[in-house]
Amino acid sequence: MIRVVNTEYIDLLRFKVDRTQRHAQVVNLAIALNKTYGMQILLLLTIYSLLILLSSHYVVVGIFAFRGKTGLLVINTVLHSFTLIYAWIQVILIISNCEMCQRSVDAFYRELFRLMRESKTLCSNKKLCLYVSMRKTVNFTACGFFNLGYPLITSIIAAATTYLVILVQFSIPKT
Q: What b/e readout covers 97-125, taking b as 16+ CB neighbours within 10 angstroms?
């Protein structure tokens, strides 16, 4: 009976160490992906931010110019509305995937720490203790300029709103 329990414990310990090694590989790959695609993410977010700003401008100007007009102006405003929605979806997808990866890395560390707190035998493994204490995290950035997270979405909204107010003030003719 003791031998069966001991082999189950050894198998569990090997499983935990194997999972931590796989987790370390995934974290290293995520860091490498961030370094590799940081410039592309920066360019994409810059392009989408400009697209959001310009599409918002054309939609607002189109709405104010609707008064009694139809046809091409309506179609143009609708197309810019779809462009605006597309750009927002792309920005949200990029940022939410980065956030999801960061949260899953943190969740793994929390779960491993919880398991080690509950089991004194897992705490005796030096590899697991070192892995938990090192706690390598993933922080996605756009080429190091800004962090990719949900606060970035609010920053884009604030910047676009500010510029939109300025652009609309100068572009709507006074009647």
A: ebeebbeebeeebeebeeebeebeebeeb
Instruction: Look at the block and give the residue holding tokens 């003719």.
Output: 173
Q: Compute how many other C-beta atoms are within 10 angstroms of the C-beta atom of residue 72.
A: 8
pLDDT attached to residue 8 = 58
Segment 130-149 mean pLDDT: 84
Average pLDDT for the chain? 82
Length of the chain: 175
Query: Which phi and psi (to 5°) does residue 40 adopt?
Result: -65, -40
**Dihedral of alpha carbons 95, 98, 104, 105, sign:** negative
Residue 14 pLDDT grade (very low, low, confident, very high; cuts 50, 70, 90): low
This prediction's pTM: 0.76
Tell me which long-range contacts 99-105 makes (C-beta under 8 A, separation of at least 24): 99/148, 99/149, 99/150, 101/30, 101/138, 101/140, 102/137, 102/138, 102/139, 102/140, 102/149, 105/23, 105/26, 105/27, 105/30, 105/137, 105/138
